[in-house]
Write a structure and sequence with these properties.
537 residues, alpha/beta, Amidase signature (AS) enzymes, two-stranded antiparallel sheet, 18 helices, 13 strands
């Protein structure tokens, strides 16, 4: 007879099509409030709801909680709640064993680091050399060899004592396959849902991490971003997300889109937890030379968690990001006064190059995607060793891989040459110059600014697998293309759907941004736990 854990793992390893049927079957077992349509799950390990890393560590240190028990509680919560969300693509079959070992270490007086015994969910494009798969949501990598070693950031997590609970669903290939995709959908994992209103989209491509952490399915999570894929799902799912400076965190062992913009980053429910996690992830990786710059960062970001962190700050208001959605403006505008009340000086600013680098950025991404992905596939020894192989796989498996949208971006990228081509070099130079020297750096120098503030974007749209995403605006591109840091924090709600506020700035300004974000968070305490409403209708 199969154990409960075996049944759960088998469910989480199903393909998207099969999982849909299981979700439908399991949903009848849930207690749904007939009046409001809300999923009643407050009795499912309620003590985990909104619990922070610091609180969990205190309980484990006092002996009131063990890492194994904590893992069991989160696994139970995933089993009870995630069939509604489809956010976790796979459970780590060794999570409980790892937690037991960490408990023994703690009992013997040894703790590895700030995350000792803390369960974390990571995105399914991050290599783990264990019994989990790394697929980027694609069926093509289901039978690929296990990565030879953990991604560098996974090594950092294990050194600090984190328990990798499982992997989260994502927009397949990090949302770089089709121009008509639905964020949060992958052939392996199906469609991830927004935990606030289930027929709404969680945004991509770190959709599973955003949804799962918002729903308290793990203590903390990790996403990855090329342009908006940490900031958007964090804001849309009502959590904190940090997109770090390029070079602060290693990219090795992460399935790539483009090395000139890719980075992993924390996705958590509080700024304090994000600061703890960021400090763990930072490090110099010999397999990723750009991380030599990580020395410019801090070793401990928690020292910047200051309630008076707004005092004396000069913050530019990115007015080009306002006026696109009156309801979002209605949430964000009053918060500008809160920034002033905290001691910040605000001034309106305008980026003259804001609309000028999009085409160059896309050209860079197409070139780098083909080169970087081919390199990753070769090193992984995948049965599909090139982008061309993946294109053929998708065509051969069209009914499973492309039931809703195609692979237009794959086809465009495959036509590109190598990175020595003049078109690529000019596009890279243009995109970086317009976003860095003539963009963020110029505005901040001229106005003597510490940071920029803007709405993170719109609110969650209705998921539409037929037509794809509806193109809600985001403010993430300037930071993404420049490779500079961006922090989004819950700011409030529009008809029950989360809205985020972003703070971004120069390279390696994470300490300043964390000060501002933490002070703002403490002054507003805007985050609310999701209600899992099925729809507005």
């Amino acid at each position: 007879m199969k154990t409960e854990n075996q049944n759960r793992r088998e469910f989480l390893q199903l393909s998207g099509a099969a999982a849909t049927g299981v979700v439908a079957a399991l949903s009848v077992m849930k207690n749904v409030d007939a009046k409001e349509g809300a999923l009643t799950l407050s009795d499912t390990n309620e003590e985990l709801i909104e619990t922070t890393v610091g609180e969990l560590q205190a309980r484990m240190q006092s002996g009131n909680l063990s890492a194994k028990k904590l893992v069991e509680k989160y696994l139970e919560r995933i089993k009870d709640i995630d069939p509604k969300l489809n956010s976790v693509i796979e459970i780590n079959p060794d999570a409980e064993r790892i937690a037991e070992e960490l408990d023994r270490e703690r009992k013997n007086g040894r703790t590895r680091g700030a995350l000792h015994g803390i369960p974390i969910l990571i995105k399914d494009n991050i290599d783990t050399a264990d019994r989990m798969k790394t697929t980027a949501g694609s069926l093509a990598l289901l039978n690929a060899p296990t990565p030879k070693q953990d991604a560098f950031i996974v090594q950092q997590l294990r050194k600090s004592g984190a328990v990798i609970l499982g992997k989260t669903n994502l927009s397949e290939w990090a949302n770089f396959r089709s121009t008509k995709s639905s964020s949060g959908w992958s052939a392996r994992g199906g469609q991830t849902r927004n935990p606030y209103v289930l027929d709404r989209n969680p945004c991509g491509s770190s959709s599973g991490s955003g949804s799962a952490i918002a729903a308290n399915l793990a203590a903390i999570g990790i996403g990855t971003e090329t342009d908006g894929s940490i900031v958007c799902p964090a804001a849309t799912c009502g959590i904190v997300g940090i997109k770090p400076t390029l070079g602060l965190i290693s990219r090795s062992g992460i399935i790539p889109i483009a090395h000139s913009q890719d980075t992993a980053g924390p996705m958590t429910r509080t700024v304090a937890d994000a600061a703890i996690l960021l400090g763990i992830l930072v490090g110099n990786d010999r397999n990723d030379p750009i991380t030599a710059q990580s020395a410019k960062g801090a070793k401990d970001y928690t020292k910047f968690l200051q309630k008076d962190g707004l005092r004396g700050m000069r913050i530019g208001v990115g007015r080009q990001y306002f006026g696109r959605n009156a309801k979002i403006d209605g949430v964000i505008e009053p918060h500008l006064q809160i920034l002033k009340n905290g001691g910040a000086t605000l001034m309106d600013v305008k980026f003259p190059t804001l609309q000028q680098f999009g085409d160059a950025e896309y050209e860079v991404l197409l070139y780098e995607f083909k080169t970087d992905l081919n390199k990753y596939l070769a090193e992984r020894n995948s049965p599909y060793k090139t982008l061309a192989d993946l294109i053929k796989f998708n065509e051969d498996n069209r009914d499973r891989e492309m039931p809703f949208f195609g692979q237009e971006i794959f086809l465009q990228a495959e036509k590109k040459g190598n990175l020595s081509e003049r078109a690529y070099r000019l596009a890279l130079q243009k995109s970086k110059n317009l976003s860095q020297a003539q963009g963020i750096d110029a505005i901040m120098t001229t106005n003597k600014l510490d940071a920029i503030v803007a709405p993170s974007g719109g609110v969650a749209w209705m998921t539409d697998l037929i037509n794809g995403d509806c193109g809600v605006f985001e403010s993430s591109s300037l930071s993404a293309v420049s490779g500079y840091p961006n922090i989004t924090v819950p700011a409030g709600y529009v008809q029950g759907l989360p809205a985020g506020i972003s703070f971004f700035g120069r390279a390696f300004s994470e300490p300043t941004l964390i000060k501002i974000a933490y002070a703002f968070e403490q002054a507003t305490k805007a985050r609310r736990t999701p209600k899992f409403l099925p729809s507005y209708i």
